[in-house]
Amino acid sequence: MAGIREMLGALFRQEMPRGAAFDEAMWERINIGAEVAEIVAVDINVSTEYALKIARAMPSFTRLRKLEFSGTYLNRSSTSALIAALVLNEPVEDLVISHDPLCQDDFRDIGSMLHVNATLIALTLSTTQMTSEGLGHIVDALKMNTTLKLLDIGHNNLIEGAVIQPLAKMLKRNTAITHLGLNGVPLRKKGYKLLLHNLSRNKTLTDIDLSHTKPGPVAIARFFEFMNSNEAIITLKFAENDLCSEDTPRLAKMFATNTTLQRLWISYKRITEVSEVNALVDALLANSTLRSVGITTDVYANLTDVYEPLVRLVQQVRTITHLGFPYLAHNHELSMRLLAALRRTPPMLDPTHFIDPPTYRTRPLV
């Protein structure tokens, strides 16, 4: 299956070389109508001229599934034309605009598009300098939208109340959104209180990214308590939230009581006691629903004895098929022990990488 996906990507994915300016040669590469399934422009200057060309050619891209502009210096005219082209567009299912500052009129246009468009499944608007007013345009449209499954507004410096209150109103009425990305949005204690209140009522959200949301100790405790009995969330990304030793018993209890969670990504500030790692390993071995787990801390180096229980996890794990231990390369001795244990465990176990962050996979290109 992976080979098929790679072959399809080579045939249909048109990704522009980074660090250049979009020119006529690049335009010729993508202006091939039905042969294009993805247009990906990252760290490249897309002028108004070529943004307008892409917008005007959208009706000919009958198999275009994904449109991504990241760090492309889009201006108001460019964004307006591209969004207008998506209003009645049917093929595109995945729209990504990131690392491009958008204005309020841009967000208003995107909201208007969402009122009409009935095929877009995934929308990413990360690092776009989104304000509460801009978010309001998006969530107002999503109250009635029934097709969008993924909304990622990560890395926008929204104030906790300004992001959660509009989202809460949307989640009360929207029954389509299953994936929500809030990575890098500073929710803090107040934002988490509002979020948990509304998540307890929402039964459709299955994947959520709450990494680097600055919850603080009290909100972390409340969140893991909420997760103990949550029956909806399948994928949780909770990295860069400074978990500490006090959180280990809470995590262990969540592993013991939650029967829904399948994919988890967490990171500690630092683990220095072998008892903490043993507690996590015991809880993970007792859990029967988790399939993918990523765990990291500030450092792995020079702490081989502390992380020795990870070897036991690899040796004895039965239900988890993907383990991720980033930064493991810094500890050669522990890496060798884990790799030795890996030879006697299921082949899908991988001790070197994180699981993928929550993402909604649109339909295959075939």
Q: What is the succession of H and E elements?
A: HEHEHEHEHEHEHEHEHEHEHEHEH
Number of helices: 13
Strand-pairing-aware structural class: alpha/beta
- Average of pLDDT: 84
Rounded to an integer in angstroms, the radius of gyration calculated over CA atoms is 22 Å
* Strand content range: 5-15%
Distance between the termini: 12 Å
Helical percentage: 25-40%
Count all strands and give the number: 12
Low-confidence runs (pLDDT<50, min 5 residues)? 1-11, 354-366
**Major sheet description:** 12 strands, parallel
Shape: globular
Neighbour order of strands in the largest sheet: 1-2-3-4-5-6-7-8-9-10-11-12
Briefly summarize what is shown.
With 366 residues, the protein is an alpha/beta fold. The chain has helices at residues 2-12, 24-30, 48-57, 76-86, 104-116, 132-142, 160-173, 188-199, 216-229, 248-257, 274-286, 309-316, 332-342, and strands at residues 13-15, 38-42, 66-70, 94-98, 122-124, 150-152, 179-181, 207-209, 235-243, 263-268, 292-296, 322-324.
